[in-house]
Amino acid sequence: MKSIKELLRAKRDGHPLSAEEIEYFVTQTVSNEASPAQVAAFLMASCTRGLTMEETTALTLSMARSGEQLPRAAFERCRIDKHSTGGVGDKVSLLLAPLAVACGLDVPMISGRGLGHTGGTLDKLESVDGLTTDLSMQAMTDLLEAHHLFMAGQTPTLVPADRIMYALRDVTGTVENVGLITASILSKKIAEGLDGLVMDLKVGSAAFLPTLQQAEQLAVSMRQVCNSIGLPVTFVFTRMDRPLGKAVGNWVEMVEAEAALAGLVQRDLAEVTTELVARMIMLSDTSIGYEAARAAVIERWKSGQAHIIFHEMLTRQGGNWHRSMQRYATLPRLEILASDSGYVDEISARELANILSSAGAGRSREDDLIDPAVGVVIHQPPGTPVQRGQPLATVHASSDNAALKLRNELSGLIKTTTAPEVREPSMILQVW
């Protein structure tokens, strides 16, 4: 076997690495025999020279095998998960997981934190008093076997190679490489022991992948790897130009998700969630058609069963919903009023998210602290007629000064226009 230095030199010069060489490199990375500088050099060489499909598959499998994996027990329900590339106001996982369980699936949801302008499911969950997403592998296994669901963060022993590489990708400017993205996402999904995966690929000005072409490139890479390892996968391409739903911010998104499961749901949020859960059902049983799967999701939603599962999940993981509602109700909130009569203008989701992130709702580095109270609730979708003085949105913050500052910053973004926006396109762009 070549030395680490020789492998790096070969990759630098454009020579593809064998599966055995990649396995060796990943093993050396996890054991700290490969230095952070050497791992960073591998990541940069992978970006500049690219990864072949064989290299991407080998890297994905080697990373998945680098730590513990969720065990499979006999007679389990079908185990299906969903992964999103992230968006503004994207609280779909909070609705989807309990809905999928209500539809008869096991959902081992290992989620991430927000970074940059996109929010993270873990940050939203942890805005609930007492709730922990820091679960051991044994706790995850027990919750999945007994209740068919958990929502947690990546443990130190689950795909440790990804933890090491992801941290270095962020600081070395190598995040966007399609092969590295594929390996990072799929290695964790393989470690979950899935029977199928649904990918929600966000497309638009506020998405990590702004163009449909970029999203399709990632889908092609992921589909080829999934096909080679025998993991059924469906890709759903969804719009991400506007905020999804009404709320943006950690606690306010939890409140919207809870209300949505109780029946008070926005059209765009309902459409995306229903589509994704229906595709999960179809992966679990190929004999079920789309219309039947979609009808099953709607029926379980209307029954209130998913709403119950949502609250049970929060309680099992230490969360106290009632106490959280009481605590956040005492914090400041201010309204943004329409300065003129007209129609609600389009809102730049990325600009909105950047303002909220700077106010404490997000982070620019993984070790930044989150203020879960920071957020905004938009009352009307674009194109809605409003009168002067009518509330357009409500700003939430931890202090009066913070609320006032945030309202001033958002007032120029959330406003009225004289030209109505009547277009209400489908949130679903295409399905592979």
Describe this structure in words.
The radius of gyration is 22 Å and the shape is globular. The protein has 3 domains: 4-50, no CATH class; 80-321, Nucleoside phosphorylase/phosphoribosyltransferase catalytic domain (Pyrimidine Nucleoside Phosphorylase, Chain A, domain 2), CATH 3.40.1030.10; 332-417, Alpha-Beta Complex (Aldehyde Oxidoreductase, domain 3). It starts with a helix and ends with a strand. The strands form 4 sheets. Strands 1-4-5-13 form a 4-stranded mixed sheet, with helices on both faces. It has 17 helices and 13 strands. It has 432 residues and is of the alpha/beta class.
Structural topology:
Layout: H1 4-12, H2 19-30, H3 36-49, H4 53-64, E1 80-84, H5 92-102, E2 107-111, H6 121-125, H7 137-147, E3 149-153, H8 160-172, H9 178-191, E4 196-203, H10 212-229, E5 233-239, E6 247-249, H11 250-261, H12 267-284, H13 290-303, H14 305-316, H15 321-329, E7 333-337, E8 342-344, H16 349-361, E9 375-378, E10 385-386, E11 391-396, H17 400-411, E12 416-417, E13 428-431
Parallel strand pairs: 1-4, 2-3, 4-5
Antiparallel strand pairs: 5-13, 6-9, 7-11, 8-10, 8-12, 9-11
Helix pairs in contact: 1-3, 2-4, 3-8, 4-9, 4-10, 5-11, 5-12, 5-14, 9-10, 12-13, 16-17
User: How many β-strand stretches?
Assistant: 13
What gyration radius follows from the Cα positions, in whole Å? 22 Å
The SS-based structural class is alpha/beta
CATH topology of the largest domain: Pyrimidine Nucleoside Phosphorylase, Chain A, domain 2
Shape: globular
- At the first level of CATH, what is the class of the largest domain? Alpha Beta
